[in-house]
Amino acid sequence: MNVLRLNGAGGISGDMFLSLVFSLGLEPDRLQACLGAVVPFPFSFVLTPQRRSSVAVKTVTVVGGDRSMTLAEMRECASSEVLSPQVRSLYLDALDLLGEAEARVHGAGEAALHELGTLDTVVDLLGAFIALELLEVSMLSVTDVALGSGVVTMAHGALPNPGPAVAMIFTNSQRIRVTFRPEEFEWTTPTGASLLVALDRAGMVTQELSSFSVASVGYGAGERENPIGPNLLQGLLGSVPVSNVLVREVAVLSVHLDDLSGELLGGLVDEAHNRGALDAWISMVIGKKGRPGYEVTILASTEMEEELVQWLHRRTASPGLRYRREQRSVVDAQMRRSEFEGREIRLKSTIYGEKPEFEDLKAAADALGLSVVELHRRLQVRDLR
Q1: CB–CB of 14/195 below 8 Å?
Q2: Domain limits, the chain
Q3: Given this model, what pLDDT does residue 21 score?
Q4: What tens digit of pLDDT does each residue of 102-131 get?
Q5: What is the SS3 assignment for the chain?
Q6: Fewest CB within 10 A of the end CB: N or C in the chain?
Q7: In which residue ranges of the chain is pLDDT below 70?
Q8: What's the confidence (pLDDT) of residue 109?
Q9: Which of 165, 162, 250 shows the shortest CA–CA distance to 206?
Q10: 137-142/205-206 β-pairing
């Protein structure tokens, strides 16, 4: 299985990622040919040799990328049958992240990308996801991603750094962590943030990859040079045996409760998930003195263990709880989008098959006047044809 480890200490942007994949050996002409079959307007890549902190790099410029596009036109690019389901799903999710962030930041009723509504954004996002597919990358490991501090000047004027859209996009990620650098510099752009978070939400990002065989090393450079530190995106492309990825160490937290009401217990599972738990559940038990009670169990990554231990103490007011480490088998899963009679349904795909996301299934069933069971059956029949 091919993996790509990204060093986010120098930040990330769309053009930095394209610069990186070209540095790793992907031919620009090959990626341009793939994109040319999808995007509606002509463009070309121009690679310019430069040096950043003595490292030889090539910046990437998208000639013709300043052409304005509406969000609807950008979405339409995903309708091409040339795209794989995975690339289509990742691209649409990244656009959703950008649009929703802009709408929430500006208080707009509809998503609009403003200065990001250009062909350049389409090429950056689609190019990144197609490049990963061409390089046969199944999983990414991402170190802490650099964000700036202070104030940064953008199209809307002087704004807090990191920019509001970047900050908003990262609220949608559980596995990608950020670090704050003291410089008033835009280390990470909205496009860079959205492509990372889209990959994370598709289950393609891990923080638990401890070792792999390195095949090649590349560096992606942004157009702007920071004299304080290089805005370089380092990438190590390699491979791991499938067995190295399937078994991961996790933390298991549990506490017995017999003094909380149903109302106070009811929200625990959802709250745990919202705080980054991998899973959570409540079981009935018989406690001391024969009193009926409940056992709350939380499954967490080792990185989230300490934070969730402290939260569980506070949330339950329990002076003691138990935690241990266990091994967890995880099959590589990816999300793709499907459609049934105009309703979008996300499918979780593994080597063992596909399973629709229940919330999408329920929403589509309600809209179509069907039971969840009947809609699930129809999907299965359709996919067998």
Answers
A1: yes
A2: 2-240, 246-329, 334-384
A3: 97
A4: 888 766 655 556 677 889 999 999 999 999
A5: CEEEEEEHHHCCCHHHHHHHHHHCCCCHHHHHHHHHCCCCCCCEEEEEEEEECCEEEEEEEEECCCCECCHHHHHHHHHCCCCCHHHHHHHHHHHHHHHHHHHHHHCCCCCCCHHHCEHHHHHHHHHHHHHHHHCCEEEEEECCEEECCCEEEECCEEEECCCHHHHHHHCCCCCCCEEECCCCCCCCCHHHHHHHHHHHHCCCEECCCCCCEEEEEEEEECCCCCCCCCCEEEEEEEECCHHHHHEEEEEEEEEEECCCCHHHHHCHHHHHHHCCCCEEEEEEEECHHHCEEEEEEEEEEHHHHHHHHHHHHHHHCCCCCEEEEEEEECCCCEEEEEEECCEEEEEEEECCEEEECHHHHHHHHHHHCCCHHHHHHHHHHHHHC
A6: C
A7: 106-114, 155-156, 207-210, 227, 241-247, 332-334, 351-353, 381-385
A8: 54
A9: 250
A10: parallel
pLDDT of residue 155: 66
pLDDT at 244: 47
Determine the pLDDT at residue 308.
92
CA distance 248 to 329: 6
Please give the structure tokens belonging to residue 276. Answer: 């980054």
User: 10 Å Cβ neighbour count for 139?
Assistant: 21
pTM confidence score: 0.68
- The distance in angstroms from the start CA to the end CA of the chain is 30
Name 174's Cβ contacts closer than 8 Å, sequence gap at least 6: 200, 276
**Is CATH 3.30.70.1380 correct for 246-329?**
yes
For residue 17, give both structure tokens.
């990622």
Residues facing residue 234 across a β-bridge: 7, 219
